[in-house]
TrEMBL record:
This is DNA-binding protein. Keywords: DNA-binding. It comes from the Bacteria. One of its GO terms (molecular function) is DNA binding. It comes from Amycolatopsis pithecellobii. Residues 347-454 form the HTH LytTR-type domain. InterPro entries: GAF-like_dom_sf (IPR029016), LytR-like (IPR046947), LytTR_DNA-bd_dom (IPR007492).
Length: 454
């Protein structure tokens, strides 16, 4: 049986944190970081009585629909085992909306009291810390027990979730979750979920590799007759391959697709990404559609015209060919500027089993190292709670931080000196001392000069 929801050190820490305290010793870092998001970023009411109704469904690709179908099929088989143990299995989409639920009938009836049922939303921003919502935020399996849930109404539950993620972008597609009421999950539950998700990820990786190879083939064929700079991007706007001229405009490697075609490059051009997504919607209605617009590129002070031509494989859209300097096709409507995201007041890091809250001014730079992001601070190197450097870059883009290298984001106010590096690059000497030097890639050097007005 799980510990009572109104007792124990975790519940006592939850009470203190809800009242506004920051230090929660004895609480696992993944939970403490989630609580911080719920309180500071999402402002979720910890006394919410049940999960809210999901908003209208977002756009799902055919590939995502295939993932939902496969997970539903596999979840039904897991549910047979879990049903005998009093558990329920759910599948959600990337918004946390429950799509299907299976398991023990008595527990399913109990679950309806908390709206643990289809068409209700269990993302962290809607329902606080829980197995489904926190799995969407974190990489790897997530177990949330009793009072670790942000909302007190869910303290009787134990849940474990793991997300299926796009193998190219890393963005979540769906979550497979299992929940029990007032009892521990069986030790085998986590392994069963991870095995199901691993099989689904292998299918996604195979499809991404195939579509990447076909985009390279389409690029090669078009390049033979093209006169303008040319690139091939996937439906998310990530670059699969670009010629020498287009690579300079996009700030990505030239004409060298990765050995593993599931790996792509992020051009960091929001207008291009928006145009690629718009093209995907238009091509779904009219496969012969071709469009054009203007975007700002790297190293240019004036907008550049681009033409976008969708690429299909077996009737399925796999990406777009982008020609720079061309004006073929229908004009795209003016892009709507999204509302500026609320910048974080503090960054969250972890040290051992403790959560560390940092003011932005305390962070000199962030460095990506494999699957981890490290923050260089006055307190030393701390592991960032943010799961990727791309996401951290997005969060800090308007807060005085700049991406200067594929592995580094720097606090511009903490740069003390600039040295010339090899092959046209730069080296940034940070305030932390002469030993703290951050390389600037050649392609990012002009952006650094502009940001520092040098």
């Amino acid at each position: 049986m799980a510990a009572g929801p109104g007792s124990g050190p975790v519940f006592a820490a939850w009470e203190r944190f809800v009242r506004g305290e920051d230090q929660v010793p004895g609480v696992r870092p993944v939970v403490a970081i989630s609580w911080h998001r719920c309180r500071e970023q999402y402002r979720v009411d910890p006394h919410l009585p049940a999960a809210p109704v999901a908003v209208a469904a977002g756009d799902h690709t055919l590939e995502h629909d295939a993932v939902f179908a496969e997970l539903g099929f596999r979840a039904a088989s897991v549910a047979h085992e879990m049903g005998n143990l009093g558990g329920v299995v759910t599948v959600t989409d990337a918004t946390g909306r429950i799509l299907g639920e299976w398991g023990d009938q008595a527990t399913l009836a109990r679950a309806t009291e908390a709206n643990l049922a289809p068409w209700f939303c269990w993302s962290e921003c809607a329902a606080g810390t829980n197995g489904m919502g926190t799995a969407l935020e974190a990489h790897g399996p997530v177990l949330i027990r009793g009072a670790e849930h942000w909302c007190q109404a869910f303290h009787n539950w134990v849940s474990a979730g793991i997300a299926v993620r796009d193998v190219v972008t890393g963005d979540p597609i769906a979550v497979l979750n299992v929940s029990c009421w007032r009892r521990q999950l069986p030790a085998s539950a986590g392994g069963r979920l991870a095995n199901v998700v691993a099989k689904t990820q292998r299918t996604l990786k195979r499809r991404a590799r195939d579509s990447g190879a076909e985009l390279v083939a389409a690029f090669t064929q078009a390049r033979a007759r093209a006169h303008e700079p040319l690139a091939a991007v996937d439906t998310a706007g990530k670059v699969v391959i670009a010629d020498d001229s287009a690579s300079v405009l996009m700030g990505v490697p030239a004409s060298t697709p990765a050995v593993d075609s599931t790996l792509r490059w992020n051009p960091r051009l929001p207008e291009l990404i928006g145009a690629a997504r718009y093209a995907s919607k238009q091509a779904a209605q009219d496969p012969g559609w071709v469009g054009s617009t203007q975007i700002f590129t790297h190293l240019a002070d004036e907008p550049t015209s681009i033409s976008i031509r969708p690429v299909f494989s077996s009737g399925h859209l796999i990406g777009n060919l982008v020609s720079f300097g061309a004006t073929d096709g229908a004009q795209l409507p003016p892009a709507h500027q999204p509302a500026p995201a609320r910048q974080p007041r503090r960054l969250v890091a972890t040290r051992a089993n403790r959560m560390v809250l940092l003011r932005l001014a305390e962070v000199s730079f962030a460095e990506s190292d494999g699957n981890d992001v490290w923050l260089c601070t006055g307190q030393g190197r701390l592991r960032a709670a943010t799961p990727s450097l791309d996401k951290l870059d997005d969060e800090l883009a308007d807060a005085g931080f700049l991406r200067v290298h594929r592995r580094y984001v720097v606090n511009l106010s903490r740069i003390r000196e600039i040295e010339r590096g090899p092959k046209g690059g730069l080296l940034l000497v940070m305030e932390d001392g002469p030993n703290e030097m951050v390389p600037v890639s050649r392609r990012n050097a002009p952006a650094v000069r502009r940001a520092l007005d040098i």
